[in-house]
Specification:
The complex is a heterodimer of chains A (about 110) and B (about 120).
Chain A: E1 3-6, E2 10-14, E3 19-21, E4 23-26, E5 32-38, E6 44-50, E7 56-58, E8 64-68, E9 73-78, E10 87-94, E11 102-103, E12 107-112
Parallel strand pairs in A: 2-12
Antiparallel strand pairs in A: 1-4, 3-9, 5-6, 5-10, 7-8, 8-9, 10-11, 10-12
Chain B: E1 5-7, E2 10-13, E3 19-24, E4 31-37, E5 43-50, E6 65-69, E7 75-79, E8 88-95, E9 105-106, E10 110-114
Parallel strand pairs in B: 2-10
Antiparallel strand pairs in B: 1-3, 3-7, 4-5, 4-8, 6-7, 8-9, 8-10
The chains are: A mainly beta (about 110), B mainly beta (about 120).
Chain lengths: ~110, ~120
């Protein structure tokens, strides 16, 4: 069975400082991992996905994530936060076959001017 | 281009009433998913449709919940005899296929409030 744990329910950073949103996963298979973002009153949008091609994955809006098998982690980072990054972020895991996507509980990112 | 649309955007109902939530997937997407997002929780998988195959209903929380997908396109999620714990945002997503590499595109959701 697959599961994800987002280690922080809320992260607050100042504009222009780095962002780190932590995610650990558990999977019986070689996992596929995703980060989705949800802005207020908007649908979920895919930020990036790991599909075993490269351990460092670059996504939209300057975000990237690194797959570390030894640490079972897939943390999301961005060098410099922007006010528009304030949103809810979800780490997601999928195994092979017909298993549905499994979402973490989300991390709310606040960006302070 | 048209994305996934859902209606209504908000629904307020009384306990015990039935509700229907609608999802229009992206044209050409064969896979359609329903999720529930409760306050402070992640997304909970409810049901999944793939083409003409029997749906995967493994996530439905009770037999009060059902869904259908007519003509391989529009889907309706029905909740009978609603309870207050059914209050949540119901999200629909579609993708080109079921394979894990197919990105799921989400609609804006229907916020259901059961009084």
């Amino acid at each position: 069975a697959q599961s994800v744990t987002q280690l922080d329910s809320h992260v607050s950073v100042s504009e222009g400082t780095p962002v780190l949103l932590r995610c650990n996963y558990s999977s019986s298979y070689s996992p596929s991992l995703f980060w989705y973002v949800q802005h207020p009153n908007k649908g979920l949008q895919l930020l990036l996905k790991y599909t075993s091609a490269a351990t460092l994955v670059k996504g939209i809006n300057g975000f990237e994530a690194e797959f570390k098998k030894s640490e079972t982690s897939f943390h999301l980072t961005k060098p410099s936060a922007h006010m528009s990054d304030a949103a809810e972020y979800f780490c997601v895991v999928s195994g092979v076959g017909n298993t549905p996507l499994v979402f973490g509980k989300g991390t709310r990112l606040s960006v302070i001017a | 281009g048209a994305g996934v649309s859902q209606s209504p955007s908000n629904k307020v109902t009384e306990k015990g009433k039935d509700v229907e939530l609608r999802c229009d997937p992206i044209s050409g997407h064969t896979a359609l998913y329903w999720y529930r997002q409760s306050l402070g929780q992640g997304l909970e998988f409810l049901i999944y449709f793939q083409g003409n195959s029997a749906p995967d209903k493994s996530g439905l929380p009770s037999d009060r919940f059902s869904a259908e997908r007519t003509g391989g396109s529009v889907s309706t999620l029905t909740i009978q005899r609603t309870q207050q714990e059914d209050s949540a945002v119901y999200l629909c997503a579609s993708s080109l296929g079921r394979e894990w590499w197919n990105e799921q595109f989400f609609g804006p959701g229907t916020r259901l409030t059961v009084l």
